Amino acid sequence: MRLHDSPTLLAGVIGWPVAHSRSPKLHGAWLARYGINGEYRLLPVAPAALPAALRTLPAQGFVGANLTIPHKEAALALCDVLHPTALRAKAVNTLEFASGKIIGSNTDGIGFIANLRAHGVDPARGPALILGAGGAARAIGAALQDAGAAITFCNRTPDRAIALAKDFPPANVLPWEQRETALKDFALLVNTTSLGMAHQPPLTMSLENASPDLAVSDIVYVPLQTSLLVEAVARGLKPVEGLGMLLHQAVPGFRAWFGVQPEVDAELYRIVAADLL
Ligand SMILES: NC(=O)c1ccc[n+]([C@@H]2O[C@H](COP(=O)([O-])OP(=O)(O)OC[C@H]3O[C@@H](n4cnc5c(N)ncnc54)[C@H](OP(=O)(O)O)[C@@H]3O)[C@@H](O)[C@H]2O)c1
Question: For ligand 1, is residue 116 a contact (CB within 6 Å)?
């Protein structure tokens, strides 16, 4: 068979709404870079239509998909096989359609850890303070614990942090009001709340009490440099920006669908960052 006769490999991001997703820009850049006969599409799917969409996409030539809001939790019940990362995160963000089966995994934790390492930060460098107790906190808490870090959840709504910590023994819980004074006891701070994101309230979090070797990670990436990261730089602490997590979490899906291990580099960062402005 001549190369151009081979079928176009299709993947995409399923969400509702989904027009805001940066994933087509990201995967499109890799498809072009590696000369792959593939397409990555926006797939607007309403919640009630998700089961039918997952059944019909493979027949349309799709080899897999990403899932975003509001489908990540609902997809757990629709997969034939769940990777341990999806079970730990209680959410699916990456699907592979293979041998008639729907295989679900969660790559947020992998992306978070890979981004830390790309910034020269060892995830097991010491105790980690995780602000937030939502979906991202769960995936990141699991990944940090698997990497060997002691984790503490700190959330505005204490019951959510307590419930989350119960799923990850021996995780600790810190009252939201103590997030600044307790900082000296931690080697890594991670903001997984939506605070500090464009159109959201600011994150009130002074780094005054930080130990000098604290690494400060913010997974919010709009704006690219959040006020938390700006303060970390001003105090000589190690900043870890959030866009890198988005780029790294896309690697396992691309590899599974298109057969190439893609590289996260400065050029990719520049392409996706330009799309955020
Ligand atoms: N960089 C990446 O690749 C990446 C990946 C995933 C997510 N994210 C970002 O991470 C953020 C969280 O995502 P998620 O899926 O975990 O969301 P989520 O499940 O809705 O959780 C939101 C969290 O933010 C907290 N929060 C919201 N408003 C607050 C306020 N006014 N004061 C204090 N806490 C507040 C919530 O606390 P309560 O429990 O008290 O409501 C909760 O802990 C979003 O900005 C998302 O864009 C980035």
Answer: no
